[in-house]
Each structure stands twice: as structure tokens, then as C-alpha cells.
Specification:
Number of domains of chain B: 1
Strand content of chain A: 25-35%
Structural class of chain B: mainly alpha
Helix content of chain A: 25-40%
Helix content of chain B: over 70%
Strand order of the largest sheet of chain A: 6-7-8-3-9-10
Oligomer: heterodimer
Largest sheet of chain A: 6 strands, mixed
Bound molecules: adenosine-5'-triphosphate, magnesium ion
CATH topology of chain B: MetI-like fold
Number of strands of chain B: 0
Shape of chain B: flat
Number of helices of chain A: 9
CATH architecture of chain B: Orthogonal Bundle
CATH class of chain B: Mainly Alpha
């Protein structure tokens, strides 16, 4: 459903992604792990054209993802993204955040927005502004917001890294539910326990390359590459 | 509260000191010519307020254009915006209004001093206001923009529904500052013969030699316009300022 062919992305002299190939099947949950600066965020951001690769291409179902295409906004709407720092719109309530994109696309649906809040377990905060929410609540609202356009795939960029430890669980729980419902998900994360538990496949990245791809069990227990093992030794 | 009391006491003391110094000076005070010319001051006040008000509205409208130009993806549009701001900010308004009145106005066959002066003031204000608007837009975090785009909002929708609602709150205090500056700047319209407040003072002085009194009165009149605005700006800053963040570039 998502295919990256030979994707290379540079920022000046820094090569954030080098010849990355990856295929993600529908319903698959993939966790991206790797040291800081290894290119995890960049990979995710190429999938919804927040970054444009210099080389290679990204396809979503059979459409080429390209910031220049006419219907890029529609396509972006079909790729949900959740950020480390939430980026909720501070001038809108939780419900307003969720309804904004559907409303601007001509299909506002308050009942559905409320149901989404219910699904991530923050129904009681519908009328609260982001300032009044805890980090965990903010991130769950952000997940609901990303779901509002019925995305074909959800991208998570370290969704729990900015949270106080006691709030990590509630966000992971919302993601677990989503995975169980069959959502296709790509998750950059440092939560190794979570990766091991929900990921169908784990991708280890280093210096812009995909070093190793395999089942969680394979990557965590008998990785084939020294670099993967060295990284895991440090973080586990 | 404490701070406000201190501020009030200092204001009173300085005011009293200035008053005493003026009263004790060898100058022979004579406010009767100024009083006799009061109609001129009143008309001048109305002209100052209307020229400033119209120029401000014009400045905000053109300023939005200037800000969007300077944030444009198109290099040449950006350069045009930059050039406009550089030209306006790099020359005195007095020179600009002279060029407008003696140079441009005759070419396009306009002879109304108030109209030419006000348009020139608006065009002048646009450069400064455009910068305030641009800074306001840029103060919105980049993540807001990315979140909006990743939800499938177009650039325009992102600007209108996400960026501007946040930016406008932050622009209000500095825009009030621009309005104050514009009120004072409008005094230069005397140079092309617009009969605003400054002209009233000049007229009184020229006719009666009571220059000192005339300019003191007009200074007082400017303060009655600017002090309430500045108090308003401070109040707005207190109310809206708490939510400000340091931002990064955008658009
Ligand atoms: N906008 C940018 N401008 C310049 N360099 C960038 C930019 N974005 C990323 N980079 C660089 O690209 C490389 C990959 O960055 P990326 O953010 O994708 O890594 P990451 O794996 O997500 O790291 P982290 O775990 O710290 O989030 C890094 O060297 C980073 O400094
Ligand atoms: Mg990252």
C-alpha cells in the first residue's frame, strides 16, 4: 500500500535518507527505530510530502506522492500524521480541532468527531481548549484529529517522546486499539516494549539507511547486523 | 497595583516640575491668541484624527499585501515586497509626502491636499504595518503549519483558519503602537498645507508670535490622542501577551 523506491533526501550536505526502499502492506504496523538523526522523521515526512525527496519516489496505493501534484491536499488528508509535540490548534477546542479539516472539506460531522474523541477516551474534553489539556490528552486529541479524514494510513513521529512518563501508557493504549482495528501504521518510536508488542515488522535505521527489517522478534532477539545489536544494547 | 501607584506619583511629580519650571521662566505667558484660534485647533484635531484613521485602515490593507509578498514563495514577489519596505523605511516621510504632492499628484491630476497627504501616509504606514503583520505570521510555530497541511488544508486554508487567528492576537499590541506613531507622523502633512493640528499651531505662532504657547497646546493635544492608545496597547499586551511563543519561519 505504501512503497518507497530508492528514496534519497538531502538537507544541504546532510543526507537524511539514502536509497531507502520499503513496502508497507495494508493493515501492517511498522515501527521505525534508530538513533537520533538516523532519518526516521524524514522518512515519515516523505510519505505525506512534508518533505520532497531528491531522488526516488513514494507511492501510496498506486498514486505517486509528490508535493507538486494538483490534488496533493486531498492526498495529504488521507495520510494522518501525529507529531511529537502534538501541534493542536490553540485557538480551537478539542472538538474544533477535529472538525476543522472535515468542515473545510465540506463534510462537517459533529457526531463523528465526538465518536472519535470517545474512541481515544477524551470525550469529556470536547469543549476544552488545548491549553487546558494534559500532554496525554493533547496527544489523544491529536490522534482523533488525524483520524477525522478517514486516513488510509497513520504516521506517528515519536508520539510519546514529549510526554511525562505517567501519560505514555494512555497514548500507547489508543494506538494499540487502532492497530487492533487494522489501521496501517508507521510509528517512529523509542518505546521498544511497545514496538515489540504491536509491530508486525520493525525497521532499524542508521545514518539515513534502512539497516535491518524484520519481525520484532527477529530484530530484538537475533538481529543480523552489528549496528542493530549495538543500538539495542544501548537502549534496552 | 503598587507599580501603578509608583507610575502615577512619578507622572504627577514630573508634571508639577515642568509646570513650575515653565511658570518660573522669564517667558511672558499669553495663551489668549491660542484660545482665539481654538476653532483652528478643533478643525485641525478632526483632520489629524481622520487622516490618521484613514491612513491606518489603508496601511493595514496594503500592509497585508506587503506581508504576504514578503512571505511569498515567488522570489520576484518577495523582492518586490522587500524593495517597497526598503524604499519607504529608507526615506523620511516628509520627503515622501513632498514627492507625492508636488511630483505624483499633478501627474495624475489630483489637487486635494488632504487626499494626497492621507494616501501618502497610508502608503508609508503599509511598510511598517506590513512588517508587524509579517512578524505576527512568522511567530506562529512551524508545527502549526505542518499539522494543518498534513490534515489536507491548502496553503490558503492554513493561513486563514490556522495561522492568522493565532497571529492576529499577537499583532494587536504592536499595531496599536503603529497607530500611535502614525498619529504623530501625520503632523508632517502640514508641509503640503493640510490644515491639521500642527498647522493650527504654526498658524497661531506666525500670526501672533505666541509660538511657545501654541506648540505646548498642540503637544498636549497629541498626548490626549496618544496616551489613551498607549494605555490600551499596554492593557492588550497584558491580556493577550501571555500566550506568545517564540516562533520560526513559515510559509
Ligand atoms: N529541515 C531540516 N533541515 C536540515 N537538516 C535536517 C532537517 N530535517 C532533518 N535534518 C537532518 O537530517 C537528518 C535526519 O533527521 P531526522 O529528523 O529524520 O532524524 P530522526 O531519526 O527523526 O531523529 P530523532 O530521533 O532525533 O527525531 C539529521 O541529521 C537532521 O539533522
Ligand atoms: Mg525525529
Amino acid at each position: 500500500m505504501i512503497t518507497l523506491d530508492n528514496v534519497t533526501k538531502r538537507f544541504g550536505d546532510v543526507t537524511a535518507l539514502r536509497d531507502v526502499d520499503l513496502t508497507v502492506a495494508k493493515g501492517e504496523v511498522i515501527c521505525l527505530i534508530g538513533p537520533s538523526g538516523s532519518g526516521k522523521s524524514t522518512l515519515l515526512r516523505c510519505i505525506n510530502a512534508l518533505e520532497s525527496p531528491e531522488k526516488g519516489r513514494v507511492r501510496l496505493d498506486n498514486e505517486v506522492v509528490d508535493a507538486g501534484r494538483q490534488d496533493i491536499d486531498t492526498l495529504r488528508g488521507e495520510v494522518g500524521m501525529v507529531f511529537q509535540h502534538f501541534h493542536l490548534f490553540p485557538h480551537l477546542t478539542a472538538l474544533g480541532n477535529i472538525m476543522l479539516s472535515p468542515r473545510l472539506h465540506g463534510r462537517p460531522d459533529e457526531a463523528k468527531a465526538r465518536a472519535l474523541l470517545e474512541r481515544v477516551d477524551v470525550a469529556d474534553k470536547a469543549d476544552a481548549y488545548p491549553d487546558m489539556l494534559s500532554g496525554g490528552q493533547k496527544q489523544r486529541v491529536a490522534i482523533a484529529r488525524a483520524l477525522a479524514m478517514d486516513p488510509r494510513v497513520m504516521l506517528f513521529d515519536e508520539p510519546t517522546s514529549a510526554l511525562d512518563p505517567e501519560m505514555v501508557g494512555e497514548v500507547l493504549q489508543a494506538m494499540r486499539t487502532l492497530a487492533a482495528e487494522g489501521m496501517t501504521m508507521l510509528i517512529a518510536t523509542h518505546e521498544m516494549g511497545f514496538a515489540r508488542e504491536v509491530a508486525h515488522r520493525v525497521v532499524f535505521m542508521d545514518e539515513g539507511r534502512i539497516v535491518e527489517v524484520g519481525t520484532a522478534q527477529h530484530v530484538f532477539e537475533n538481529a543480523s547486523h552489528d549496528r542493530t545489536r549495538a543500538f539495542l544494547d544501548k537502549v534496552l | 497595583m503598587n507599580e501603578r501607584v509608583t507610575r502615577g506619583v512619578i507622572t504627577l511629580l514630573v508634571g508639577a516640575a515642568i509646570f513650575c519650571a515653565l511658570a518660573a521662566s522669564p517667558h511672558k505667558w499669553n495663551f489668549s491668541p491660542t484660545w482665539a484660534y481654538r476653532q483652528l485647533y478643533w478643525d485641525g484635531l478632526l483632520k489629524t484624527v481622520s487622516a490618521t484613521g484613514i491612513a491606518f485602515v489603508l496601511g493595514v490593507s496594503l500592509g497585508i499585501g506587503v506581508a504576504l509578498a514578503r512571505l511569498s514563495r515567488q522570489l520576484w514577489v518577495r523582492h518586490l515586497g522587500d524593495l517597497y519596505v526598503e524604499l519607504v523605511r529608507g526615506t523620511p516621510f516628509l520627503v515622501q509626502v513632498m514627492i507625492a504632492y508636488f511630483g505624483i499628484a499633478p501627474l495624475i491630476g489630483v489637487d486635494n491636499k488632504f487626499l494626497v497627504g492621507t494616501l501618502a501616509l497610508g502608503a508609508f504606514a503599509a511598510a511598517y504595518i506590513g512588517e508587524v503583520i509579517r512578524a505576527g505570521i512568522e511567530s506562529v510555530e512551524r508545527g502549526q503549519f505542518e499539522a494543518a497541511r498534513s490534515l489536507g488544508l491548502s496553503r490558503t486554508q492554513t493561513l486563514v483558519h490556522v495561522v492568522l487567528p493565532q497571529a492576529v492576537r499577537r499583532m494587536i499590541p504592536p499595531l496599536t503602537g503603529e497607530l500611535i506613531a502614525l498619529t504623530k507622523e501625520s503632523s508632517l502633512l502640514f508641509a503640503i498645507g493640510v490644515m491639521e493640528m500642527m498647522s493650527a499651531a504654526r498658524q497661531t505662532g506666525a500670526d501672533t508670535y505666541a509660538h511657545f504657547e501654541a506648540y505646548l497646546v498642540v503637544a498636549g493635544l497629541y498626548l490626549t490622542l496618544t496616551i489613551p492608545l498607549s494605555l490600551l496597547a499596554r492593557a492588550l499586551e497584558r491580556r493577550l501577551g501571555s500566550g506568545t511563543r517564540t516562533g520560526v519561519d513559515l510559509l
